[in-house]
């Protein structure tokens, strides 16, 4: 269990991309990490784009980023909702300032854009938000997964195995 003792936070909101939320959570739990889910409200069942539910353990406001070793942002349409919360942006900025692992896939880059942390970073995302990423100051690469220090980004569900392999490597180096 390579990640025993590690605590990771995953954000959630309605219309998350089902695989992009659950695959990382389950994969990290397999490695012994504790993964908590935070949404707009605690104890709420959020529904993914394809109907898979996820219940939040905490609200965004309940979270102290000091309690976590890493964060994950799923894709889908949820990132457009998640990025509207100042608490989320503060968490992302804290993790970035402290060089703690940040995982983002697909449309999750919107959250990092709103947090203002992409200037000079090498990233990928769904090609649909490439211009947004570039306009936020990032260097966008058309690759399944890109690692830039503590930031691990990926494009889409078929890239999940590569994404998690690299995210776990970054977690192990922490």
Structure description:
Strands 5-2-1-6-7-11-10 form a seven-stranded mixed β-sheet, with helices on both faces. A two-stranded antiparallel ribbon has the order 3-4. The protein is globular. The protein is built from six helices and eleven strands. It has about 170 residues and is an alpha/beta fold. Strand 8, helix 5 and strand 9 (about 140) form a beta-alpha-beta unit. The mean pLDDT is about 100. Helices cover about 30% and strands about 20% of the residues.
Q: What is the secondary structure topology, with strand pairs?
A:
Elements: E1 7-11, H1 18-30, E2 34-39, E3 45-47, E4 53-55, E5 58-59, E6 70-73, H2 78-82, H3 86-97, E7 102-105, H4 109-115, E8 122-123, H5 130-135, E9 139-140, E10 145-148, E11 151-154, H6 160-172
Parallel strand pairs: 1-2, 1-6, 2-5, 6-7, 7-11, 8-9
Antiparallel strand pairs: 3-4, 10-11
Helix pairs in contact: 3-4
């Amino acid at each position: 269990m390579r990640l025993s003792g590690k605590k990771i936070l995953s954000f959630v909101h309605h219309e998350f991309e089902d695989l992009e939320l659950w695959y990382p959570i389950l994969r990290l739990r397999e490695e012994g990490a504790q993964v908590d889910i935070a949404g707009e409200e605690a104890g709420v069942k959020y529904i993914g784009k394809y109907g898979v539910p996820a219940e939040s353990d905490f609200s965004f406001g309940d979270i102290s980023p000091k309690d976590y070793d890493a964060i994950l942002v799923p894709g889908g349409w949820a990132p457009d909702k998640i990025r509207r919360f100042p608490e989320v942006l503060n968490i992302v900025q804290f993790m970035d300032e402290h060089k703690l692992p940040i995982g983002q896939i697909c449309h999750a880059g919107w959250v990092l854009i709103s947090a203002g942390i992409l200037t000079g970073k090498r990233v990928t995302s769904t090609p649909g938000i490439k211009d947004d990423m570039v306009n936020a100051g990032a260097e966008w690469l058309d690759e399944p997964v890109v690692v830039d220090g503590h930031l691990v980004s990926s494009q889409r569900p078929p890239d999940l195995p590569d994404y998690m392999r690299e995210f776990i490597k970054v977690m192990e180096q922490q």
